[in-house]
Specification:
Strand 5, helix 4 and strand 6 form a beta-alpha-beta unit. The N terminus is likely disordered. The protein is globular. Helix content is about 30%, strand content about 30%. The protein has a single domain, classed as Gcn5-related N-acetyltransferase (GNAT) (Aminopeptidase). The chain is α+β, with helices and mostly antiparallel strands and about 170 residues long. The chain contains five helices and eight strands. Strands 1-2-3-4-5-6-8-7 form an eight-stranded mixed β-sheet. The structure holds coenzyme A. The site of coenzyme A has 21 residues, from helix 2, strand 5, helix 4, strand 6 and helix 5. Coenzyme A binds next to helix 2, strand 5, helix 4, strand 6 and helix 5.
Length: about 170
């Protein structure tokens, strides 16, 4: 898994409640199962347009993203954060899903995003962040806005949003 990384980003990023870890072997088994059972919304947000088998989905994810972090709380694996289209020293795109409704609205997604952005900035890997969210995903758009992102444009039903670290986006 580490072999899929293009630059140095710590294998573990942690705050009081949330931990981002590069998936190990057992995590990948869990991930395959979780992807097998995931609903369309989750698959789409991870960029999996079709619904191939669990192992193929996991492989596609590892190909699609420069880095994949598993989002963990104290006892549970609760979601996934992917970093893709990384332009070294410049920008990266983020994608995040919290798997279960019971784990949402607890601040986990926001903590995960903040940890990832801080990790990328502090390691000099990028200074600007983009996300692509479906126009109809109001919850997703509000989530990114709450985390400091601004809408740039909408094309083909996808809203492009941006955050420049340490300054306004535009
Ligand atoms: C969007 C998504 C990632 C948000 O994750 P999350 O962990 O629920 O996010 P947070 O808990 O940090 O924030 C969500 C809400 O909970 C609120 N919240 C944050 N901490 C809280 C806490 N401790 N207690 C109660 N509510 C809290 C936030 O204010 C926010 O409120 P809002 O809905 O009015 O914006 C999650 O809903 C998800 O996985 N959706 C499907 C995939 C998706 O759409 N991804 C985004 C596009 S890439």
């Amino acid at each position: 898994m580490q072999g899929f990384q293009l630059g140095h980003l710590p294998s573990r990023l942690k705050d009081k409640d949330v931990c981002l870890v590069i998936p190990g072997l057992f995590d990948l088994v869990w991930l395959s199962r979780a992807l097998r059972d995931a609903d369309v919304e989750i698959r789409e947000n991870l960029g999996l347009k079709r619904a191939p088998g669990a192992c193929t989905s996991t492989f596609l994810l590892l190909r699609l993203f420069n880095w994949v972090y598993l989002i963990r709380t104290k006892n549970n694996r609760v979601g996934l954060l992917g970093i893709y289209d990384w332009e070294p020293g410049q920008h990266a795109f983020l994608s995040v899903v919290i798997w279960s409704d019971t784990q949402r609205d607890r601040g986990i997604g926001s903590s995960a995003v903040r940890l990832a952005m801080e990790g990328l900035v502090e390691n000099g890997l990028c200074k600007e962040f983009f996300v692509e969210v479906k126009e109809c995903n109001y919850r997703g758009i509000r989530f990114w806005e709450r985390n400091g992102f601004s809408q740039i444009n909408t094309r083909d039903g996808i809203v492009l949003m941006c955050l420049s670290w340490g300054q306004g986006c535009q």
